[in-house]
Amino acid sequence: RKEVEQDPGPFNVPEGATVAFNCTYSNSASQSFFWYRQDCRKEPKLLMSVYSSGNEDGRFTAQLNRASQYISLLIRDSKLSDSATYLCVANPNTGNQFYFGTGTSLTVIP
Amino acid sequence: EPEVTQTPSHQVTQMGQEVILRCVPISNHLYFYWYRQILGQKVEFLVSFYNNEISEKSEIFDDQFSVERPDGSNFTLKIRSTKLEDSAMYFCASSDLSGGNTEAFFGQGTRLTVV
User: Fold this and answer.
1) pLDDT tens, B59-79?
2) Contact A96 B58 (CB under 8 A)
3) Predicted confidence band at B101 (pLDDT cuts at 50, 70, 90)?
4) Which run of H or E residues covers position B36?
């Protein structure tokens, strides 16, 4: 069973649309959760950490549901520059690996 | 802003040769990682390293691979006797895990091409 599961997409949305990505994790010992963004042939870059209380950064809102072991990312008013792969990541905070989902591909269309 | 740096950015090697990929983690970080990503595929964990020891390794990280922290700043991944299927982007990462700083920071990667 995969530690972190994501719908790979692709999601193709028009500019200005709202799009939501979901992710589930299997290890209940996971302590920290993140969304990373990865552009083609580039390194993953932290988009935002995810907290149980929910957190928002501009057009981006992330939510964690520990009971359901579910993480979400909402992007409002999509821009062309949002086109990328979005990686859901869980970390048990033990110093061992960060668990990566397969990534969800987003293309924002003019 | 502190960053993880990796060299070289691109390495081409012949099958069977040894390569060493180099990384300089963020200076106050204590946890170091190597991941790889074959073109078009997912990010795969190779190894994590803490206190001069491997703390976890994946099935991919077999006897062909080794890691070392030869001094206070560098963290290297050695691949002995490279195979065609080792061609991938190799990412180094580091993290602090203290307080609220639990995220991992990634270097820009080394693209390894085995021919």
Assistant:
1) 999 999 999 998 888 999 999
2) no
3) low
4) strand B31-37
